[in-house]
Amino acid sequence: MLSRLNSKEVAPWLFLSPVILFALVFFVLPVGFAAYVSLTTWDSLTPPRWVGAKNYQYLFATDPVFLKTLWQTLYFAVGTLAIGVPLALLVALAFSKVRHQGAWRVAYTLPMVTNIVAVAFIFTFVLRQTDGLLNRLLGLLGLPGPGWLTDPRLAMLSAILVFVWMELGRNMLLFAAGLGSIDESYSEAARLDGASEWQVFRHVTLPLLRPTVLFVVITGFISGMSYFTLMLVLFPGTQGGPSRAALTTGQYMYQMAFEDLRMGRASAVAYVLFALVFVASLVQLRLLRRGGMEAP
Amino acid sequence: MAEDSVPLAAPAVAAVAEAAAPRRRPRGPGLWAVLKYAALTLGALAMLLPFLDMVLGALRTPAERLARPPVYWPQDPQWGNFVRVFDELPMLRWTLNSLGVTLAITVLQCLTSAMAGYALAKFRFPARLAVFRFAVGAQMFPFFIFLIPWFFILRYFPLAGGNGWTGSGGAGFLGSYTALILPFAVSWYGIFLMRQFFLAIPDELIDAARIDGAGEFYIFFRIALPLVGSGLATLAIFVFLYHWNEVLWTLTVTRTAPDLQTLPVGIYLLRGAYENEATKSVQQAAIVISILPVIIVFLLLQRYYVASVTSGSVKG
Predict the structure, then answer these.
(1) In chain A, which residue's Cα lies nearest the Cα of B109?
(2) CATH at A254
(3) Fewer CB within 10 A of the end CB, N or C, for chain A?
(4) Is residue B300 part of a domain?
(5) Across B38-42, average pLDDT
(6) C-beta separation of A53 from A59 below 8 A
(7) Total domain count for chain B?
(8) Are B235 and B110 in contact (CB under 8 A)?
(9) H or E element that contains A218
(10) B113-148 tens-digit pLDDT
(11) Where exactly are the transmembrane stretches of this chain (chain A) (predicted)?
């Protein structure tokens, strides 16, 4: 019996068995359960009641907040990429040709290993209107210091900036690795042909870096769309910042589920957001394949 | 690193090459170098100043905080705040919870990832491709989809925490460490990563062991696993740092179980306790202390961490 278990035919299934059990209980079951709950109304205390597609209908037709959060989530995800990706690329370009890389790397990756609660608290102090570090520095330059966390027009931008600060190290490392894998001889050849540094970057380095850029953009977009832990700490006591200006769909779902106990509606929110992220990442994957890279 | 590996004869060869073909200098190398260092320094300041701001905040006296305008540079640094934190808050408990939960998750994920990755890389069986595709596809599912169902699966887990066969009667796994660990026992990304590492081991090695009469489990634990040691270390450091900083799930399942709270969650729930401006220095000291352990781990294992961040991105 024991030797049978230890054979070439049975062993792989034994090696896979923990994962298969886990997949059934913590993947297949939850995905199905959430789909079912999204079609019911359920306060988690009394049995769920079937309502069909009513939750989805409510979100798109009646709910005044849901669509607002979708736009804000998109603003957050796109905003972090629009600011963060060029910045990380710039730092990576400087970083990849510098001495003492270890020391620079520590500086840039420290935020990345700091827990999100600490990051958010650090910035609730840095971004305080009256005596925060940022407004003090702006004051030294003679600029007025706005209410970064209290002005509804600035709240989401502040969250974006903090997120960019946090993720810069990760993206910089990814770009630096991408730059390191590019054969130097291409850019050398271009330089010998008289290309300027900008031309070398624009026409040689950037096209060769395309797979890395797409990887950073896709993973960044997915995590940006589902992100809200930062806002939870950055705007305490409010429901997603001043006038809900920093409320993302993920946080809206969380509040619905664990504060209002509307599990059905919250599951519907989760599924709509999931569908959006899924479609967006499929589109981006297609672009990625065209960029000369197989499955990430 | 490249300089160290240049053979001894290299300088001579380089000198000859230089003489034969004088190198064309790029325009204005001085300007580029200055710009490069200026950009890097500015960026590094932006990265580090917020940390310094937090440390300075932790050292201020209540009077300095309440002064108008508030004093920025503490005149009488209150190092005692770092001790006070341990008196006033269950810092030790939080740290031990973090450490225990994170280590358990790390060990579980490394083990399950290695076993599954090995099966997918080194065995030929009918459903192999389907299982691999499932693992890759599962990575597409964002965490928020699982938040609600996981909560209730753990709550109504049959025969756990006073529950009967039907899953009702008790609190299930909620209120136990299992609730913090079990949902993270498997990582789809980890399986994918470990499969890559096992693919690099030659099949001949494993077949040779089989011919010598070694069992499959012996081969896995004594031959294959030691060969992917650095890969395992890469996964371990990544998982450790990720889960050390995990907040959302722990917050969700420990709201009513303060004894299980981890360092970041404990600090998060502090918000209310230090509303008073005069005592905020203690809160800031607690935050500084919550960051320190992970920074030390990171500094020690930096190389593996960098490898773990970039391992999924660059082809080949």
Answers:
(1) A19
(2) 1.10.3720.10
(3) N
(4) no
(5) 90
(6) no
(7) 2
(8) yes
(9) helix A210-225
(10) 999 999 999 998 888 999 999 998 888 888 899 999
(11) 12-39, 74-95, 107-127, 147-166, 212-235, 268-288
